[in-house]
């Protein structure tokens, strides 16, 4: 016997804030909407959840379909359920934030995205729906997790120097860090291992390269 609900069923969507460090700045990937509502406006990659689809699968699918990006670190952020946030009707959105290194990343507009582009967090264009609010929450979460986790390592390539890692922290925090204290704290982490390779930058002496013992995993350090 088929059960009929007396209550209306709101639509459920997922949206993704994809961060990367590019050109010395914290940037996020935006799509230009091809259809109403907000046709021509910039928005986060996202869309409606399929009836037989779980939330994380929906978020990853929408990210790939609209931007071509796959293989990112993904973490659930916030659920937006304010009435009126979507002019099409009652839509509840589960937001995620994703992090990825910039090397080897290729983007393309697809699905219902008219265009796709990187935007600096400091210079966001007007955004559709409540997506600017979601972006601000994602940045706050990212900053908070720097203090007690290895979240920043998700921005790093396979091998990196401690100076490169410090630069990532400084970009996210928007402040300078003491080099000696930073190195001491990072080297105390059990998630890093020293490689046998070094990298020379300009006329400076070669810098030691490190890598993560468990790439793709965020660990708590406090």
Portion in beta strands? 25-35%
Q: How many domains would you count in the coordinates? A: 2
> What oligomeric state best describes the polypeptide chains here?
single chain
**Terminus-to-terminus distance:** 52 Å
Mean pLDDT: 94
User: Major β-sheet, in short?
Assistant: 7 strands, mixed
Number of strands: 9
Shape: elongated
Say what the CATH topology of the largest domain is.
Answer: Nucleoside Triphosphate Pyrophosphohydrolase
Tally of DSSP helical segments: 4
Give the proportion of residues in helices.
10-25%
Salient structural properties:
222 residues, alpha+beta, Nucleoside Triphosphate Pyrophosphohydrolase, Arc Repressor Mutant, subunit A, 7-stranded mixed beta sheet, two-stranded antiparallel sheet, 4 helices
Task: List the SSEs and their pairings.
Layout: E1 11-22, E2 25-33, E3 42-43, E4 46-48, H1 55-67, E5 73-80, E6 91-99, E7 113-120, H2 131-146, H3 162-173, H4 179-187, E8 192-199, E9 207-212
Parallel strand pairs: 1-6
Antiparallel strand pairs: 1-2, 1-4, 2-3, 2-7, 5-6, 8-9
Written description of the protein model:
This protein has 222 residues and is of the alpha+beta class. Helices cover 23% and strands 29% of the residues. The N and C termini lie far apart (52 Å). The protein has helices spanning 55-67, 131-146, 162-173, 179-187; strands spanning 11-22, 25-33, 42-43, 46-48, 73-80, 91-99, 113-120, 192-199, 207-212. Strands 1, 2, 3, 4, 5, 6 and 7 form a seven-stranded mixed beta sheet that branches. The chain has a two-stranded antiparallel sheet with strand order 8-9. It has two domains: 11-129, Nucleoside Triphosphate Pyrophosphohydrolase (Alpha-Beta Complex); 151-212, Winged helix-like DNA-binding domain superfamily/Winged helix DNA-binding domain (Arc Repressor Mutant, subunit A, Orthogonal Bundle), CATH 1.10.10.10. The mean pLDDT is 94. A hairpin with an 8-residue loop joins β2 and β3. It contains four helices and nine strands; from the N terminus they run ββββαβββαααββ.
């Amino acid at each position: 016997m088929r059960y009929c609900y007396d209550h209306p069923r709101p639509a459920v969507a997922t949206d993704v804030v994809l961060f990367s460090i590019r050109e010395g700045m914290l940037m996020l990937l935006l799509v230009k909407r091809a259809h109403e509502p907000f046709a021509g406006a910039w928005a986060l990659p996202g869309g409606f959840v399929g009836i037989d689809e779980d939330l994380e699968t929906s978020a990853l699918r929408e990210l790939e379909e609209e931007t071509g990006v796959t293989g990112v670190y993904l973490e659930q952020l916030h659920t937006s359920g304010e009435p009126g946030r979507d002019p099409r009707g009652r839509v509840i959105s589960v937001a995620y934030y994703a992090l990825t290194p910039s090397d080897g990343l290729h983007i393309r507009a697809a699905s219902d995205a008219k265009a796709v582009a990187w935007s600096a967090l400091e210079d966001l264009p007007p955004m559709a729906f409540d997506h600017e609010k979601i972006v601000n929450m994602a940045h706050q979460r990212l900053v908070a997790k720097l203090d007690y986790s290895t979240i920043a390592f998700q921005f790093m390539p396979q091998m990196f120097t401690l100076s490169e890692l410090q630069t990532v922290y400084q970009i996210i925090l928007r402040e300078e860090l003491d080099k000696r204290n930073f190195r001491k704290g990072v080297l105390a982490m059990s998630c890093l291992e020293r490689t046998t390779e070094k990298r020379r930058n300009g006329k400076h002496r070669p810098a030691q390269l490190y890598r993560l013992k468990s790439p793709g995993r965020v660990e708590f350090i406090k």
